[in-house]
Design brief:
The protein is built from 13 helices and 10 strands. It has 298 residues and is of the alpha/beta class.
Length: 298
């Protein structure tokens, strides 16, 4: 039995009510909390490798995003601000005041928005493969068409599944790592067609520019781009990092949009290093309290 399989069997499962319906959580470990929110069309299972890595020292909370996995289906458009509110309600339900927020794609945008709106509840944020820019005309056309195609086909199957995998995974992953491709395929196959429709429209085709909001972020934020991400380019991720005053930007080589699956070891190391560096800065007194928030000095 692999570490992933052993970890999956040990989760405590919780269902909590939120503004976006009932949300399924899987919780494991003890220590400082870490909340993980997934990419579009993926549920919390995409973070199993991260849970296995961090569970011995952290309380890991894997979130099935609205409309995905064991959470209630979506039936309307929604916003990043609603997702951030949903996350506060999740934290309240499990009686956790604050924690690290880790997100990929959609989840990364939620993590950044949450950190801007609820700074007292974010110890820091790690955002992978995401953007803070409004959808371009090309993106609006591509993802609107994809949303309607999934709804008409009643799910991701056949050519739609093939295209989704090529779009989400890096070229090297598709060719060299069939187990990762199969894991992604199984995740995509679980998605409700109606929920996929509303998610693709809300988070990709019709997303708004968040850069002005993110200028208010004063918590440390790690922004990671994948050099083979065909959904959000390196330039889009870099623009997001530039909008966040306390951000650190990195490019992950040989990775598409699903970095936690494609480059699990490197993502785990990056998250651990980022949190460790935050702790060192706090110990050295480089993070001082300003107006109820901690701000880096020097």
């Amino acid at each position: 039995m692999t570490a992933r399989s052993r970890t999956a069997k040990k989760f405590e499962q919780r269902i909590v009510p939120t503004c976006l319906g009932r949300i399924r959580l899987r919780i494991i470990g003890q220590g400082q909390p870490m909340f993980f929110w997934s990419s579009v069309l993926m549920d919390g299972s995409m973070w199993i490798s991260q849970a296995a890595h961090f569970k011995d020292h952290y309380c890991v909370v894997l979130i099935d995003p609205p409309g995905h996995g064991g959470s209630d289906n979506l039936e309307r458009r929604f916003t990043l601000e609603e997702c951030a509110l949903c996350l506060t309600q999740i934290m309240d339900a499990v009686r956790i005041r604050a924690g690290y927020i880790v997100g990929a794609g959609w989840g990364g945008m939620v993590a950044a928005t949450f950190t801007a709106l609820y700074p007292e509840r974010a110890a820091g944020a790690i955002t992978l493969n995401c953007s803070a820019s409004a959808a371009s005309l090309k993106q609006r056309l591509i993802y609107s068409a994809a949303a309607y195609a999934v709804r008409i086909a009643r799910g991701l199957r056949g050519p739609l599944m093939t295209q989704a995998l090529k779009h989400l995974l890096g070229q090297g992953t598709v060719v060299q790592y069939p187990k990762i491709v199969e894991t992604a395929r199984l995740g995509l196959a679980r998605v409700d067609a109606g929920s996929a429709f509303w998610t693709l429209r809300s988070m990709l085709a019709e997303r708004r520019d968040q850069r002005q909001l993110l200028e208010a972020v004063r918590r440390p934020v790690l922004v990671v781009a994948g050099d083979q991400d065909s959904i959000f380019s390196v330039d889009e991720a870099r623009d997001m990092a530039c909008a966040i005053p306390a951000s650190e930007f990195r490019v992950l080589r040989n990775s598409g949009h699903l970095a936690p699956l494609e480059q699990a070891d490197k993502i785990n190391a990056s998250i651990a290093e980022f949190i460790r560096n935050m702790a060192v800065k706090r110990q050295r007194g480089k993070l001082r309290v300003v107006g109820g928030q901690k701000k880096q000095t020097g």
